[in-house]
Amino acid sequence: MTITTLSSRELNQDVTRAKKAAKSGPVFITDRGKPAHVLLSFEDYQRLTRQRRNIADVLAMPDAADIEFDPPRMAIGARLADLS
Fold it and tell me: Which InterPro entries does the protein's record reference (predicted)?
């Protein structure tokens, strides 16, 4: 992964360079010498923002009715407690 740093002025003068650089790693964009923004490829952005879903999140989705969900039934029986 290559990290590229460009000033805001450099970015404005050569956007194509910044987009090409983002293919190989993040591009830090500075304002007055301080990092202000980061340009990422869309794939890198998706990888960073990907979240794991749990079953409650999926069932809360508006189109959850379209999801097939047929979990196996569990047999839960009573057992005597071992108090020894």
Answer: Antitoxin_Phd/YefM (IPR006442), YefM-like_sf (IPR036165)
Cα 41 to Cα 47: distance, rounded to the nearest angstrom: 10
Whether the CB-CB separation of 8 and 29 falls below 8 Å is answered with yes
Query: pTM for the whole thing?
Result: 0.58
Domain range for 12 is: 4-60
pLDDT of residue 64: 62
* Domain-located, residue 46: yes
Looking at per-residue pLDDT, the higher value among 64 and 48 belongs to 48
- The CATH code of the domain that includes 45 is 3.40.1620.10
